[in-house]
Batch of 2 targets.
Target 1
Amino acid sequence: MSPVFDNIDQFVDGFLTSLEIILWALAGALPLGVLIAACRVSPIPPLRAFGTFWVTTFRNTPLTVVLFFCAFGFPELGINRSFFFFGVLGLVLYTSAFVCEAVRSGINSVPAGQAEAARSIGLNFTQGLRYVVLPQALRTVVPPLGSVLIAMMKNSAVVGAFGVGGDLWSTGASLTSAQGYPTFPVYVGGVAVGYLIITLTAGALLQLLERKVAIAR
Amino acid sequence: MQFRRTALVAALSVVALTAAACGDDAEDSAAEPTVAEAPEFEAGTTMAEIAEAGTLRVGTKFDQPGFGLENLEGEVEGFDVEVAKIIAGALGIAPEDIEWVQTPSSVREDVIEGDEVDMVVATYTINDKRKERISFAGPYYEAGQQIMVASDNDEIDGPESLKENPDAKVCSVTGSTPAEQIKQYLASPDQLTLFDEYSQCADSLRNGQVDAVTTDNVILLGFVSESDGAFKLVGEQFTQEPYGIGITKGDVAFCEFINDTLQENEDAYIEAWESTAGEVEGTETPELPEPAPCA
Amino acid sequence: MSSEQQAVLYDAQGPRARRRTLIGTVVAVLALLGLAYVVYRRLDEQGQFSMEEWGPLIDPGNEAFDAVWRLIGEGIVNTLKAAALAMVLSIVLGTLIAVARLSLGRIGRIPLIGLIEIFRGLPVVVLVFIGVRVLPDVGVDLSGLPGGQVLWGLVIGLTVYNMVIFAEIVRAGVASLPRGQREAALATGLTNWQTMRIVLLPQAFRTMLPAIISQLIVVLKDTSLVTFIANYDELLSQGESIQRNLGNPIQTFTVLALLYIAINYCLGRLAQYIERRQARAGRSTPEPAETAGLAPGAAPVGGGA
């Protein structure tokens, strides 16, 4: 394991960069996914079509291909931002489709009578969604949404291959192939442990949250 | 980015494609190296084993234009490939009996140690760290790391100016030696952008995502020549990268055989260069370097 | 399934709302067309629509067309091969893990749960790397297997990642069955293992089928991660090879994206079809409350890259 301890500062840096990618992507994917879900259930047909198109596209394309278009497509349109920005953007677009589906399945799990009751007291679509359906959907949404977000944290590893650099995954690549460290300790002892710290912590937080919303039932 | 319609790659692949399309079996422009008729080798040597087996397993790159690039037909082309063919010829093995194994930078020592190949010819820089695990024949080419920028860039004129322009981004390939070596010239590690392939760096240079690309001069020259004047090389070569042929550690006889073969086939060597990497404008036909003593 | 649900979220539109919707639609469509035009102009200025770039991909008369599509065809076959192998192995191993977890005692299953948590917490690209590169480094030789070392390294990485997800799907599937099923089976004199094999698993698998197919989509997409790690000629790697020779990455990747979407979309529809047929058949559909953990298929759907 000494390759890990010898380079612990690099691993810590990589860990922090990965965490940074994840936090930005969270901040983007959650609201965007909810917005797309609202489109998918909205009364306006073109918005529904747009939502369906969005989900079909991003859910069925490998993340690697989405990231490619972000890193090499946008600059073609004259949009130059850092690769970090494009990497996070790719992760956000990809994840938003899954967030949308998790939220939508939650909306569908709220009994129809609730929405009918909301309408009968005069709430319109937005109000009904905002005050009646979504709050109830939340508790069924938490477990699947949580696993979508944890999957996103794991997927952040792929972003490192698109010019971002310095995250956990690229740290492993640089230590093994350029500096000649053996792969086993670097990946199993370093990279894997770093991701486990992130995902297991997130998993524990998720369980706490699940317990909390479950009481609200 | 009118993408690198690669003078080099296109030239190579179009030749191959048209040949295939016309049902013409003529090989591309590289002259066929001479294949020795039933050469004699001392029993027990690597040469004898290979000649006996009738096939040579060569590790090379499949993604390095000019040195080792797999074309659409699945054949590999480039200078490294031609050099391997010269050596195969001296062993009495025809080019079609060579088994090509893709060896990206990160696995080169592994495949030699694991006896998955007989030799590796893959833009393989000779250095002491690698010599701990394998031996090198050659060198057969002297490259050096350099910097490529857009033609209208006056701010960067060598590795030193990267420190003076802390906003400048420089691109190289993940885990490669050039990527490690450029780090000492940077003001901050954020200046370094890493991709899987140099072509992605060249694309990013063209569309303004990075300000410079760095790796061995010959690889950069390929991009400069196909960029229609959009790229240029700046500054001197700031490292020396002698390319060697990787073989099993301590196989002195095989190493000497390879060195002698190259010395005896200097014409074929020059031919190999000119039909591949040498087609790029601005390259000079190299002289075969003096081989290092085998150990 | 969702259309009735959606309809209760809002009233049927009256004339005014319909007019507003129409105006909104027209404005949105015009805005999108405008955006599309700007994008088109920018790309066109860069020469991205030239036949020089597109020809090898779409013009059968192009000299490179045959070679390009032969590579793509091989890529699809290799992608499906790796995905299918990983899928079958993960279902088998996942079921074994689930059964073990259900039949071990409270203490006995702790190490198993630890294992599941660890494998679930790792990025699939790290697991594929471990399968392809670390295993040979620590002396596990897979090169003797048919298909070669990289294929099996990839399959192992994908399997380890997905088997624990399947274990969870199977566990939820078995747990969703009415308690009486197990009790009745035991009462007829079947052993625990027989109950599991003859009564519980077959019913659980029926309800799990849609989730299994959604997971297949994830596995299929994840095969593309091997491009960063080693040489296996799946679809994305073949695309890399094509654009390396032709210098048209944007065009090649557009075609690849469409192919992935087409394949995965069909699989997704298949999952929906089966789900609907089962909903009609009624009997084996679990209660809505229990579906929450299972059907949003989301545990699986979210996974991977």
Note: Chain C touches chain A through 68 residues (CB under 8 Å).
Target 2
Amino acid sequence: MNTRVLGLRANRPASHAASHPGTHPVLQRRQLERLSLAALLALMLSVALLSIAIGPVAIPLAEVLRTLGALAGLPVAEVAPQHEAVILSIRLPRTLLGLLVGAGLAVAGAAMQGLFRNPLADPGLIGVSAGAALAAVSVIVLGGQGLAFLTQALGPFSLPIAAFAGGLVTTLLVYRLASRDGRTSVTTLLLAGIAINALAGAGTGLLTYLADDQQLRTLTFWSMGSLGGATWPAVGSAALLIAVPLLALPLLARTLNALLLGEAEAGHLGIAVQRMQPLIVALAALAVGAAVAVSGIIGFVGLVVPHLLRLALGPDHRLLLPGAALLGGSLLLLADLLARTLVTPAELPIGILTALLGGPFFLALLLRWQRRTA
Amino acid sequence: MQPRKRLLTTVTGAAIGLLWCASALLAETGETSAQTARLISVDGAITEILYALGGEAQLVGVDTTSLYPDATEDIAKVGYKRALSAEGILSLNPDRLLMTDDAGPPEVLEQIARAGVDTHPIPDTPSVAGLHETIAAVAEVLDRTEAGAALSAQLDDELAQLEAATERSSKRPRLLFLLHIGSGNDMAAGRDTAADTVIRLAGGENVLHDAFSGYKPLSAEAALAAAPEVILVTQRNLEQLGGLDAVLERGALQATPAGQARRVLAMDGPLLLAFGPRLAVAAAQLASELGIIDEETDERSGLTAGQP
């Protein structure tokens, strides 16, 4: 069944191990884990190559490989300068940004689902997306008037910086509301998140109402997400910010595994629960805040990718977190490839495609869960 | 002998003629890059001006706000002007991108510029003076400044005739222009909008000219207080709503003087809002619909003929 869901050859040994109880299950499991991650890495690399090779400008594969070869310092033949420019200044930064954003969102989603022990949790739950959206819409609508000092000081960076700051501030607020005397209740965190999301949503709604026609179009496109703003500076800043949670969250895999048993149980296992919870929340907020800042709101990746992997590989966060990073990047790149090529020379907002790919999957998941519990 | 000689002269003459034509053609193609550059226009008014100046053969892509003339349907569409795609535009292999201030996103424009495409800003203030600037800027890009000056002069001429015609009338109807009504957020036009200028040129008065700038959501009470005598909507909006009664049901429009008299005017949206070379035509059409100018007596001026 798992092989069917993920379609990975690496999962075949799993069914073998299950059907031959006489073999070494521990050894098999290790091997399986390594194979799964290798397969996911191979998937990510091939999707990345596709993303660099395919686009509205027709570039022969040989030229693509030659450009990449020249980048790696290999002595290769000349490439047409315009093709080289398309690959180096458009497709390559866009591919890297897609990998970073997809990986960041998926890892943050997996960590949130682990922390809240709730399969419906996504990074939006702690207010990151709603806060970032409120800040971004404020800049779009009030940038010419009330917030003119901000847009003048920061220029074209005011939108991403405001979105990032808005996401972090909202998360901090949610966290503060849920903490009392140095103790944080995960349930209150969840409920405070819902309340703050509603408030931020109201603010966004009010600004949307005040927006003029052009601003309305801008914020509609922003809220559907796009990797179209992928320039090297954007990739650089996103990489700096997303790399931290991307490397740190997998290190907290044991903590997340222990938290799956319950907060008290994790405490008995020697986990400093009260110190780890804010750390996980902060790392997830950092990843999502940076992702939203550079690409707008991209839904479903953070929710769907961890589920896909949990179905295929089980709930162990040591496997789940790196796997989510690889699969999240691959899925977002695939969606972006479709967004770029389906309606050329125009472009679809990527949020439409992630929701289109993610929606039916999520429904199927719900129906399966219903059947199983009935 | 005689017929053969005549044949010889004809053939020689034709050959010389052909050679001359070919050399002229060759000289022309090699000469000016402005007249062969591949252009993309991401603004409806710029596209209209390009057509009016005869530069349409150079047009390889337009945005989704370029709706007139109908021939734009056959040109590749590069999407909405504020959500352009860098590689999509580069795939059309353009030399120059003609755009207004609001084109974007800025990162995409930067990438296009870095790939060697000239991203050329064109001014677009919604006033008559602004339109002259737009025409002059597009004409310069095409290296057809004479045609541009002619188009500007023609526009001035049409506007002067229209002004003379509207001054003969004592009517100054008070109009309220509503954009997208019926979608829960009825947007009304204030000053500094294309609709405001067209209404003024047509000899009417925009009831919200002093109230605000740009488009703003209109409340029922504000509509009542503005007391418009005529409500102006776009043809498509009226069709979507399903007729005059549906328009008047919105807010307090029924209670306004316009609602009492059931005066709702629908105009072709792209014509009314494009703010291109058809500005005088749009204003004249509105003026005649309002009864400010008489279609019969002003026919000879060619104002209401509705030509592009």
Note: Chain A touches chain B through 31 residues (CB under 8 Å).
